[in-house]
């Protein structure tokens, strides 16, 4: 929900929407994380369960995943459904991540409440409204038909992105150890290796891990549009074509054409980002869709 702060989604390996960047090194100094065993690479996080809810498989496509998982996070974090069950009755838990599983452990009894194999995860992500909200989607083992549940957790004293990055790195290491990494790459025309996203999602480590590929991160669908950036100006109200068009005309008439800046406008379901045409890392504008009050087209449709 690796294919999002915006919902940062991952599926089982490298970088993702989805906006998961190298935060794992931060975990070494974070008080809410501990590496229990250097040999097993087991990591411990302090969380409490906000519950789980069903999610349809058709809502887990590239186009819908971010919105669907974030909806589940919103419903569970705001207590919209009071009848939702919670691991450990919502009390503090240890979330241990090792090389194969996610374990939810009662910190008092030190008993395993729930065990989820990492290859069975369909997607995971970080909440848009609160960076401490973490969610993952996995197949519901209690049902004979194909059904999925979205499990949501609130992290204590740390960002949920660190959990997301830990899962990403665990999956990447598993792929390398088991020789699956080569199966998920292909060569482009210029000789560069490009990640392919497998469509199969193994459920059982014992039976499938040696024969199946781990799903690679999903990224939000983006449209990249080459444009010219003219600038900005203050307006009296946050919306209305009677406000927008005079502002467009004002900038168009006052900014000489040789001052127009070539840019790439990246449009995704969650944001509009304007980057320099020369350097994509140089962001001129980054506007979240939920903060956008109004948009429109001038008299000249260009």
Automatic annotation (TrEMBL):
Q: Which Pfam families match?
A: PID
Q: Where is the signal peptide?
A: none
Q: Which residues form the PID domain?
A: 45-171
InterPro entries for this protein: APBB1/2/3, PH-like_dom_sf, PTB/PI_dom
GO MF terms listed in the record are: amyloid-beta binding
Q: Carries keyword Electron transport? A: no
Give the matching SUPFAM superfamilies: PH domain-like
Question: Out of the domains of life, which is the source?
Answer: Eukaryota
According to the record, the segments passing through the membrane are: none
Key words of the record? Repeat
User: Single GO cellular component annotation?
Assistant: nucleus
Q: What Gene Ontology biological process does one annotation of this record name? A: regulation of DNA-templated transcription
Q: What is this protein called?
A: PID domain-containing protein
Organism per entry: Rotaria socialis
